Amino acid sequence: MSTSPYAGKLLPKEMLVDVTLLTAAYYDKKPDPGIAEQRVSFGTSGHRGSSFKTSFNENHVLAITQAICDYRAQAGITGPLYVGIDTHALSEPAQISAVEVFAANGVDIFLASGGEFTPTPAISHAILTYNKGRTTGLADGVVITPSHNPPDNGGYKYNPTNGGPADSDVTNWMQARANELLENNLRDVKRMEYRVAIKAPSTHYHDYVSHYVRDLINVVDMSAIRDAGVRLGVDPLGGAGLRYWSAIADFYKIDLHLINQIIDPTFEFMTADWDGKIRMDPSSSYTMQGLLAKRNDYQVAFACDADHDRHGIVTPSVGLLPPNHYLSVAIQYLFSNRPQWSATTAIGKTAVSSSMIDRVAEKLGRRLHEVPVGFKWFAPGLFDGSLGFGGEESAGASFLRVDGRVWTTDKDGLIPALLAGEIVAKTGRDPGEHYKALADEFGYAAESRVEAPANTAQKKALSKLSPDQITSTELAGEKIESIITNAPGNNAAIGGIKVSSKSGWFAARPSGTEDIYKIYAESFKGKEHLQQLIAEAQLIVDKAIS
User: Fold this and answer.
1) Average pLDDT, the chain
2) Which of 75, 322, 396, 498 could form a disulfide with 507 if both were Cys (CB 3.0 to 4.6 A apart)?
3) pTM (2 decimals)?
4) DSSP letter assigned to residue 3
5) First to last CA, the chain
6) In 3-state terms, what secondary structure has residue 167?
């Protein structure tokens, strides 16, 4: 895919989203459930879309909220429901719509005190904190966010009583129910006026900031960061964690500098991503230009996306660490510096994450739990403590408290960022230097992700491939050692195929929204071998699905 001339640059004002028109479209445009693109569709992180495209509008939110109420009733969930929103323009009107339905259904909800924005991990943390020691009257939650998606997007996701992303059996039920409500012109949606709903006896408020911030000492060694005087920089990227970072700096008395304190739903302060679109993606060097320019001002710096469930780490030694590099460093550090964690606690990774993690796990003597893409697969293990760490190649991670109990079961961008500060404080080296040490020991990994064309039939064929449909015996000059379509950790389908040799691997998965499939690849023999591996991967996949 070609890189936009706007990549890494601020966009001219005429290219920014018109928030007034976007909000008007949220209320004015009515989705047609007969059009596939306008139906409710829960992906790996809830329903997302744009009001301009009639894929995220008031009727969607009303229908999804009623579906959540109906699901809670049939599942016997009777505790409070925690509600959070991020800083996207559509999040506030969507919250208003949701409150109108929750109140009419008599659901006890907790909104953020003072109208604060709320990161995804703060919702997960609140659910788990409330449910601790309870067996009945359990809480759940929702976060209104499209994560790192462009400013014209809105999103809505549900977290059940385990605090993590909802599993597909739950989201499929909600999706079907919400679309049924759309088809019936919202006839069965209960709703009351917002001015009444906001004062209903079932509408409450919660100080998410204080509860989350004051508990951080139990998951990251904040005292070590303070005592070592580590100079930290953070760019919240205009996201929901802005007040959290200032509260963290004040409460723990650490040397943390907020580089950008702007909240603006156009996100005009963000440099554009590779395709010229604004995304709050902390793993993209194009969007992280502002922080990269200050890399030498801090011992370590970091950023999070709009709902603060992803992290990006910037160091003086290497600049922006690729997500796989930092996941490897964090795992190596945590499992060497958390003596209270059980000896049986495992390491969680997705099938398309770096094999460096496999090598680190083997050295540590820890079981590796490899699962398909989607953080929901880590939630049960993080919940019961059998997983010490769960991480995705897309810069999402969470890990246990110091004592080995659950912290969050959804992605948490703040704690991996703060952990980078702990690593510097305890070792005197930044995470970039730590990864170099790993690479010196285990080999230097070259990685890439590319896209290849595929029509609907070919994508369907790819999602249902079996290992015996791959007839090749070699991959980039090496014998193929394994071909899998199900993740070793839980035997769940990965939605594609992964082929591995001694020095490299590739995985291919169909896109859910475009006529393409994605190839993830990694080589421990250098960039030339990586390119050969990718070229052969496409030939292997094209042959199998043609």
Assistant:
1) 96
2) 498
3) 0.96
4) P
5) 22
6) coil
- Write the pLDDT tens digit of every residue in 80-122: 999 999 999 999 999 999 999 999 999 999 999 999 999 999 9
Give, in degrees to the nearest 5, the angle at Cα 192 between 189 and 197: 125
In the numeric block, which tokens belong to residue 415? 């704690």
Contact, 146 vs 153, CB < 8 A?
Answer: yes
Q: What is the H or E stretch that residue 1 is in?
A: none
The DSSP H or E segment spanning 24 is: helix 19-28
Distance of CA 304 to the CA centre of its chain: 10
Distance from C-alpha of 322 to C-alpha of 29, rounded to nearest angstrom: 40
Q: Report whether pLDDT(1) > 80.
A: no
The residues carrying an active-site annotation are 147
HSE of 68 in the Cβ direction (CA atoms, 13 Å)? 37
CA-to-CA separations, 402 to 216, 221, 339, 429, in angstroms, rounded: 10, 9, 8, 21
Q: Convert the pLDDT of each residue in 271-318 to its tens digit.
A: 999 999 999 999 999 999 999 999 999 999 999 999 999 999 999 999
The two beta strands, 300-304 and 516-523, are unpaired
Please give the backbone phi and psi of residue 263, each rounded to the nearest 5 degrees, phi first. -115, 115
- CA atoms in the 13 A half-sphere facing the CB of 269: 14
Residue 372 has pLDDT above 80, yes or no: yes
> What does each C-alpha distance from 150 to 121, 267, 276, 332, 506 come to in angstroms?
21, 9, 11, 34, 29
Nearest CA to 241 out of 30, 411, 492, 73 is that of 411
* DSSP for residue 409: S
Chain-centre distance for alpha carbon 402: 23
User: Contact 239/280 with Cβ under 8 angstroms?
Assistant: yes
Q: How many CB atoms lie within 10 A of CB 414?
A: 27
Is the per-residue pLDDT at 513 higher than 70?
no
8 A C-beta contact, residue 191 and residue 68: no
How far is Cα 306 from Cα 239, in angstroms, rounded to an integer? Answer: 4
Return d(Cα 519, Cα 458) in angstroms, integer.
14
Q: List CB contacts of 101: < 8 A, sequence separation 6 or more.
A: 62, 65, 66, 69, 189, 190, 191
From residue 76, give the alpha-carbon distance in Å to each of 130, 161, 215, 482, 513: 17, 11, 30, 44, 34
Q: How far apart are CA 210 and CA 251, in angstroms?
A: 9
The alpha carbon of residue 216 and the mean position of all alpha carbons in its chain are separated, in whole angstroms, by 20
57/321 Cα distance (integer angstroms)? 37
With beta carbons less than 8 A apart as the criterion, state whether 94 and 156 touch.
Answer: yes
Find out whether 235 and 269 touch, Cβ atoms under 8 Å.
no
Among 192, 161, 201, 134, CA closest to 71:
161
